[in-house]
Amino acid sequence: EAEVAQSPRYKITEKSQAVAFWCDPISGHATLYWYRQILGQGPELLVQFQDESVVDDSQLPKDRFSAERLKGVDSTLKIQPAELGDSAMYLCASSQPTSGGQETQYFGPGTRLLVL
Amino acid sequence: AQTVTQSQPEMSVQEAETVTLSCTYDTSENNYYLFWYKQPPSRQMILVIRQEAYKQQNATENRFSVNFQKAAKSFSLKISDSQLGDTAMYFCAFKYNNYGQNFVFGPGTRLSVLP
């Protein structure tokens, strides 16, 4: 069964350092999401791609976060510089959009970031 | 903007018993989808069940069923014959019935199934 791949699974870094997360969606899925999930809370959308284009990045802290999906397949989320408050799980999800809006999101295992 | 509320941060249930998790949402739209996702400890999030707002019939997936009350904007999840493997965080989510619209998640309910 196809799955969303993410790496690394765990990342420990010091504040002010740069970190990058990678996501490979399920083959053929045009929509890709990056979420941040603080421990004990629900996922919050950071950025949504449709193919290589950003559909929604209104909640992305653009002074330190960036995301790209250059060829419309895999994606990278970067934080530079990392801050203590960035410690969280970063989830990637993908879906194949439908005209009726009923697509199902498939989530990856996530990258757990700890900023010291 | 739409919001999703889950008023029960934690719940527990005995194995083989039935438990209901609550979810309410706020929207002025008429066409949308509602979802329940499950996130087991240290494992990835998976879809449990989905409900189309235009359907009056409540969705059912094996031991999982929903009680969808559109007028009350309520979407509860019932788990029958609870199993130890049902222990997880459960998230209620909302999505407009439009191409490309994103999902909004509630804060989650931590369910523990006790032996």
- In the CATH hierarchy, the architecture of chain B is Sandwich
Measured by residues with Cβ under 8 Å of the partner chain's Cβ, the largest interface is: A-B, 27 and 29 residues
Structural domains of chain A: how many: 1
For this structure, the quaternary state is heterodimer
- As a percent range, the share of helical residues of chain A equals under 10%
CATH homology superfamily name of chain B: Immunoglobulins
Known CATH architecture of chain A:
Sandwich
The CATH topology annotation of chain B reads as: Immunoglobulin-like
Using only CA atoms, what is the Rg of chain B?
14 Å
Extended strand count of chain B: 12
Mean pLDDT of chain A: 92
Query: Radius of gyration of chain A in whole Å, from Cα?
Result: 14 Å
Q: What distance separates the N and C termini of chain A?
A: 37 Å
SSE topology string of chain A? EEEEEEEEEEE
The total count of helices of chain B amounts to: 0
* Class derived from helix and strand content of chain B: mainly beta
| Shape summary of chain A | globular
- Strand proportion of chain A: over 45%
What does this structure look like?
The complex is a heterodimer of chains A (116) and B (115). By secondary structure, chain A is mainly beta. Helix content of chain A is 0%, strand content 47%. Chain A is built from no helices and eleven strands. In chain A, strands 2, 4, 5, 6, 9, 10 and 11 form a seven-stranded mixed sheet that branches. Chain A has a four-stranded antiparallel sheet with strand order 1-3-8-7, with no helix packed on it. In chain A, strand 4 (31-37) and strand 5 form a beta hairpin. Chain B has strands at 3-5, 10-14, 19-21, 24-26, 32-39, 46-52, 60-61, 64-69, 74-79, 88-96, 103-105, 109-114. The radius of gyration of chain B is 14 Å and the shape is globular. Chains A and B meet through strand 5 of A and strand 5, strand 6, strand 10 and strand 11 of B.
